[in-house]
Amino acid sequence: MELKETILKNLKEKFPAVNFEETEFRGELTLTFDKKFVVEVCSFLKENTELQFNMCTDVTAIDWAKRKNRFTVVYQIYSLSHKFRLRLKCNVDESDCSINSVSSVWKSANWYERETYDMYGITFNNHPDLRRMYMPEDFEYHPLRKDFPLMGIPGSLPLPKKD
Amino acid sequence: MERITKDDVHPKIIEALLGADSDITVEDALENEMILNMGPQHPATHGVLRVVLRLDGETVIAAVPELGYLHRGYEKMAENMGYYDFIPHTDRLDYLSPLANNVSWVLAVEKLAGIEAPPRAQYIRMMIAEFARIASHLVAIGSLAMDVGALTVFLWTLREREKILDIWDILCGARFTNSYTRIGGIANDASPEAMAKAKWFIDQFLPNLDECERLINKNRIFIERLDGVGVISAADALEIGMTGPSLRGSGVEYDVRRANPYLFYNDMDFKVITYPEGDSLARYFVRVDEAKESAKIIRQILEKMPEGEVLANQPKKVLPKKQEIYSRMEELIHDFMLVNFGINPPVGEIYSAIENSKGEMGFYLVSKGEGHPWKCKIKSPSFSNLQALPHLVQGRMISDVVAIIGSIDPIMGEADK
Amino acid sequence: MGLESKLKQDNFITTKLDAIIAWSRKSSVWPMPMGISCCAIEMMAAADPKYDIARFGSEVMRFTPRQCDLMIVAGTVTYKMAHVVRKIYDQMPDPKWVIAMGACTSSGGMYRSYNVVQGIDQFLPVDVYLAGCPPRPDNLLNALIQIQDKISRTKARDFPNKPLPELKVLQEN
Predict the structure, then answer these.
(1) Alpha carbons B259 and B220: distance in angstroms, whole number
(2) B233–chain A Cβ distance below 8 A for any pair
């Protein structure tokens, strides 16, 4: 499709230093790049008049469990005028478990990033309100990591007493 | 609702409530203003949502919603069970329109595994998705009217919904949380009795919905309670991530059935309803008109329905029919392999979305070639719509908060996953 | 009609105080719907014109615990929500009964996960368990009749004065 080439051409022109790997599966385009440039790339994709990716549909993360870069943060964005979906991925290592927040670009990313922080423990720098989303505030673990058991850790969540 | 002190609410929530007014101390704020807890158990029947409000008299200055009271761990469970085993779990996500979630899940798995369902199965899936949309909108209209004070409308719309549940009873075997779709088609063919009942329902639905509407459409109390309450502009709604009837009530014409069509929606003739005002009354009217458009679509489906198979013929990925399993050898072997080792889709990832009654519901699946997904993320529309709640209630009174929550229509089963 | 046709003499009935109290309690059980998820929709369907819970005396579904006798816990209870359910149960005045509606409240249901309480009888005394996912409204009416039978067998001395729960417990959340 022409839009795919336009996206790649514009991105490579504007960011010559960044290496974009592209994959395509079942008609969907995915771009992987370095996590240091995430805010610049996202604001370029939103503001450029040819591309106009003005909706951020989802932000989540994948835990690969036994790889050098343990987590991958995934952004699904959508362009309303072109009706085109794009996926962006950035690898995050366990030792430096943080990435810049894109909530300054799209406001809808605010709650999605809070949920990713709650479930995986990835910190988002410059996020306006980074709290846990689903689990209680004093819960110590991150449930969707692969080393957290499905039945939970007994005693980590208190129950009220029966008389 | 009870008055609480600084020690009862977690400090991080108080920090979020006090927000940008950083020159006011906590003690000062608590003395001149009030922090009120609209707790997880309250009469507005939208589930377990907790909203902590900061009030000046009766005007709301800030609101912080707190979710997680129904977090059941769906995404973690999906990583531990096969693609077929997850179908009954998807019923309970948006529990007012269970069949629509089933359709969404099997469309995602079929996209990942590369299976295509036969045309008759796809038409029946479209029909049940539209019935699910009507059922969900009936409850939304009824509970919005009940929240505002009109109790009769709720009983009348529930009476209409019972007729739809009867149709589902004959078609699927269960009246609610029916896991009717299967990967590669649907569980069993639609009997002529079910189709006749569907046709009877559509013929008498529009006059009955009219009757329910006439109770409140020109009622002064209803209009004054909802007109101009909870206004959000089109640009703000897009920015903050709203979707579905709430987005179309602000004038943005985005419907997944038209933007990225799935099943056979390209052949159907229907309008995308939008209203430009952006307040609660506009959202209510979008829902009523969408229910009428869905009735129109079902009528076209009943006319155009083709004959044929309802399950795809791909033995390595689709479970064969029960009669053949008990009588032939190859089908028995395939059934054994599929149930024990699962369908093994190729390595890759997809995102597939449909237009649910609340908005865009999507599944993001990552597969490593095994029988169960490596990662499953559920993009639920109620979660995205609730993000706009602090913006919508700012400057309104407490009773408007109830009306606004009713017009957004969140379902906590899918917002909390 | 009814009671008046059975009176033979001058408007006197002899009965036990227990029987009259139990009869009036069971004919007007006011439920408190703790509707949390999908079972709440079937509970709403039990109140609609087709299944009609009003003919059993349970016309008013009050959402305030101070005026109710029966708590119907409908929906999956998570660890975070368990404290809220217990708090509301403590606020109900005696005598009170509990129906655990559905598979999720009876035993955790289809959710074997880290956040779901595997059965509410871990923190609440339950009188009737309902099976189903969700149970049909007819099933809920059956449970209501079982509760009415249970109430009709109680005696006045079963409910002595109990000390009120500590105020501190109510504010611990």
Answers:
(1) 37
(2) no
